[in-house]
Amino acid sequence: MADLPGALPAPPLDALRARLAERAAAAGLLDVAYRSLDTALGTLLVAATPAGLVSVTFDGAHPEQTLDRLAVELSPRLLEAPARLDDAARRLERLIAGRARAFDGPLDLSLARGFGREVVERLREIPYGETRSYAEVAAAVGSPRAVRAVGTACRRNPLPIAIPCHRVVRSDGSLGQYAGGTEAKRLLLGVEAARRG
Amino acid sequence: MTRAPFETIVAAHGARVWRVCRALLDEPDADDAWSDTFLAALEAYPRLRHDTSIEGWLVTIAHRKAIDVLRRRARLVVGDVPERPAPPEGRDLDLARALSRLPTRQREAVVLHHLGGLPFAEVAAVLESSTDAVRRASSDGVRRLRALMGGDHG
Predict the structure, then answer these.
(1) What are the residue boundaries of the Methylated-DNA-[protein]-cysteine S-methyltransferase DNA binding domain, all occurrences included (chain A) (predicted)?
(2) Least CA distance to B48: which residue of chain A?
(3) Which CATH number does the domain housing residue A72 bear?
(4) Considering the domain B1-82, what is its CATH architecture?
(5) Which of A3, A8, A14 to probe by mutation at the B interface, max B CB count within 10 Å?
(6) Average pLDDT, integer, range A95-112
């Protein structure tokens, strides 16, 4: 390139990429769309398949590892496509701000498998503004001795915020772990307590 | 075997692919060829052999898509394809316009090698020619570009 006289203008990459995402979706070739989302809990990375929201993680500022994992576990046909996630992003924002009590959009649970899937399904039954202990969730899934495994399943919940793993706390009342950090868990529970009733 | 997210392919090679498209086409057509290229690549990506050079693969698709766009355009025009209007005498040409005035074979050799980054052996394979012939076409093309773009200087 160095020995050509002159240069071509810079490509309009943002517009090109937006159009590619739309065409890929229309052609059924966009298996995973993602965007980052700035929230009170930090910068999230949110991803969706055509079936629904599939992944929420707290690493939106440095998403490389999660994107690599999604490419392996779901599909390498993965593009940044913010417009495809506008609806899911608005729903998450409403939940975080306490303006909604549940995520009522489509969810794709394909990243929750086996025991983790059973736990995640149970988490959706914990009412807004309430909490359960890890032991109670373990009992609810019929494995009362699997308290530690329930803790792991909560931490690995692929759809935190949308599926309320933050409502599971320790039996002694302390918060326990959270993928987004203890402060994020405290904030979500605080919002729910304030809106409850 | 695992594949990197396709987004990283677009981020790493999007600019190069656009330069190849733009060097062969007007801007609106180049934009179309760019997304045609990445759409075709996205479709084939999960099946791509792991020893494939990604940039060579993309540049080859881009060249083919650009040729497709040119053929579609040619079919839309009744009769001869009009030459692009020549700029006024003595005016410098920018690179895109100068490239459009090269003979086809020179232009393709210059674009694939200098803008696409393909080695001459791969350019020869794409253009179904010999390495020596495409090397010669490319150097003739670059000389012609310098003449076209020299214009007012000196």
Answers:
(1) 115-193
(2) A76
(3) 3.30.160
(4) Orthogonal Bundle (1.10)
(5) A8
(6) 96
